[in-house]
Amino acid sequence: MGRRKISYKTSGIAATDGAGVKLRRMIGTEDIPNLDPFLMLDEFKSDSPDDYLAGFPNHPHRGFETVTYLLEGIMEHNDSKGNRGILEKGGVQWMTAGRGIVHSEMPKQENGMMRGYQLWVNLPSGLKMIEPGYFDVSRKDWKRLESEDGHIDILAGEISGIQGPAKSKTPLLYSHWYIKPNGSLKIPVSSQWNGFVHVAEGNIEIENESLPTGFLGVFGSGEEIVIENKTNSPAEGILVLGEPIREPIVQYGPFVMNTKEEIMQAFTDFQSGNFGH
């Protein structure tokens, strides 16, 4: 099937979430409602405390997983299962909402840069009501694939036999790539998986399609991805692909199920006071 091309690209839309955190929504918009199995991707990046200090106070989730990757800053996770974690530069918080959990994500800094991503990954119907879970992964525990022109750090999934440390319920690849000036990376991928690339810094080209800083590109089909950096500055970002679930998606805010009846049940369970315990 050859090399993958970019079928669509976007700089996202400005949005506000939590208690007033300013961000850019890349997936979960009118243009890209979802990219099975991915439900949402937010990029947050600001050195203005007013943009992030209010954080994300307690709120519920059901039916999917959240992956929060912090490039810069400090954030604290607490949830109704008693889990607590401090997320620092390069760290990841991976939470399985499953049948229901209430959590908060709050900045632990009063100034400076807060920068990172949050990805929502759908769960298949058979796993939506599993027990909630949570784990942290430090950047030093990601697995690195080196090349002359740069490297790829793998959080979850596998590239060329190198397996990342995170175990996702929905099969996926989550990686952070870095390319030196005038360099390129060739990445073999599953031809059956949907995916995207986001540019955190620099400018890249994929099959002659330019993606500058802050842009996300959705991939077409193919078995190989070639990312080229034709500039005199380094470039980096994330590359994420996942196995499509191909089931109905019914979403209302923080609840993602397969039917309207299941969404109503989620509200009933949450309002009963026992949700997330």
Automatic annotation (TrEMBL):
The keyword Metal-binding applies. Residues 174-276 form the Pirin C-terminal domain. InterPro entries: Pirin, Pirin_C_dom, Pirin_N_dom, RmlC-like_jellyroll, RmlC_Cupin_sf. Binds 1 Fe cation per subunit. Residues 21-121 form the Pirin N-terminal domain. Fe cation binds at residues 59, 61, 103, 105. Its cofactor is Fe cation. Keywords: Iron, Metal-binding. The keyword Metal-binding applies. GO terms for molecular function: metal ion binding. Belongs to the pirin family. This is Pirin family protein.
